[in-house]
Specification:
The chain has 538 residues and is of the alpha+beta class. It has five domains: 83 residues; 92 residues, Immunoglobulin-like, CATH 2.60.40.60; 107 residues, Cadherins (Immunoglobulin-like); 81 residues, Sandwich (Immunoglobulin-like), CATH 2.60.40; 92 residues, no CATH class. A hairpin with a 2-residue loop joins strand 23 and strand 24.
Amino acid sequence: MDSENFLLVVAIIAVLISALGLGFTYFNINNFEQNRLTGFAISQISSNTENSAPQINNLTNKILVCEDSSLSYFFNSSDANGDNLSSSIAGFSKVYTQDRRLNFTAYSTEIYSGLLDKSNMGVHDLTLVISDSQVADSRKLNIEVIEINHAPNITYPGVQTIQLGENNLVFNKPVLASDLESGNQNSDNLTFSILNTKLFNITSNGLIYFIINSSFIGVHNLAVCVMDSGLKNVHKNISFCGQDGIRLSSCVNFSITITPENGAPEILSYYPLMINVSVASSMSFYIRKQDPDGTIPDVYWYLDDELKSINSDSYIYQADCGAITKILKVVISDGLLNVSRTWTLNTNNSVCKTGIGETEICIPRFACDEWNQCNLLEEQLKLTEIEKSCKNANWSWQNCGFQKRNCIDINNCNKSVVEESRDCFYTINPNCLDGIKNCHKGKCEILVDCGGPCTQCSTCSDGIMNQNEEGVDCGGQCLVNCIEIPEKQNSLFVEIINSKISIVIICISATLLIWWWVNKVVHQFMLKKLFRAKKKIF
């Protein structure tokens, strides 16, 4: 390698080394600026003996739930000190939490709801807090309720009978239908059709019509179907709900009988035979029917004038608890003429059942609203348990209070509202600066003077150096330790010196490159001049 090329290689290598040096220096200076604020980095789990904050462990930040279903989602939390933990969730009034201790340090919490309907659709931003009453951990999450498509609902039109010769040349029968997404029969969003016949027509809004003549005599069994328009905006995750959001349909079967002279339907037999019946707990009722015109008549079962069942030849009565009397009536109809049978039911049942009809097991699940604002316990209320609690807490009568909240059964086994009461520390004007954990403005504080109606409580996951933390979300009462960044990484002076050296090397290298290029140009010029001189000689 000649001296010129050797000089070029040396200059290039020097430039590359200097560039790497500057990059490393820039990286270290940036790290210095970032770490200089605290001087700490996050390490592993701390072994602090003071009260550590609880920790939420495996909570996702997005939960999907389908319309017409209930939410049930579990996650775990822990507390290194084994403190009692409680959870709260805010941002969606239909969602609640329930905590269960797993062992000394671990808890399982369920986020749950009742049935979520169309009014709950969309994304709900929530804040969940786990607290040991002194310190807390929190997470942001959202629950999205996905809209699903519902099949149309068709009102059963009932069996129809038409008797000829009554100036009824045209028959009209509206079919009533409704759909949660597409509206009713007058919305122009439903499609009607009649199956299994060419004799009858149906309009776009569900009106069955035809011109009557003697050639139509007989029983015509029809199926009327209604199709909706599907969802206008299909959610990208609708497959999570087991459907695709496209059009759905429903059908209903009934019959139209056309006869020259109509005969009333008959009850051929029935059970029990007695009119007055004593029912201990449950009893079955049967009928056998016919119609002289060949019609299959409708069957309607009423209990105290409330319709309980349609088109079944049997009915099971489940007695309520206590001594009561009820009237059971079955009506047989061909659309024009009816026949009925009535029983008087005398019950003396000491066992309460869950409902009338087939026995169903309904397990209630109560969910409660926020506690009301604390009220001063007045002497005339005589809430003994509250008085005892105030005495045990060494509260004076001026501070002995009580508060209430309402709880409902989200499974609808029990329609009544259950009221709960508890003791509380009473103050005339509860606020976010009184040093008391209390409830006001319709919400309850999570810790003393924070959360609920007040500003958010400081936690070990909020990305802020607060509480008694030694770094951002580490040290102090947080569960993770902070480790000190080595001093040599904090020396900005060394980094600046290194950067200046690299700049000097680059300048020298650039000078060498320029010198090499000038030398190369001069050398080529001299070669060309020498070549011309030799050419003239020869």
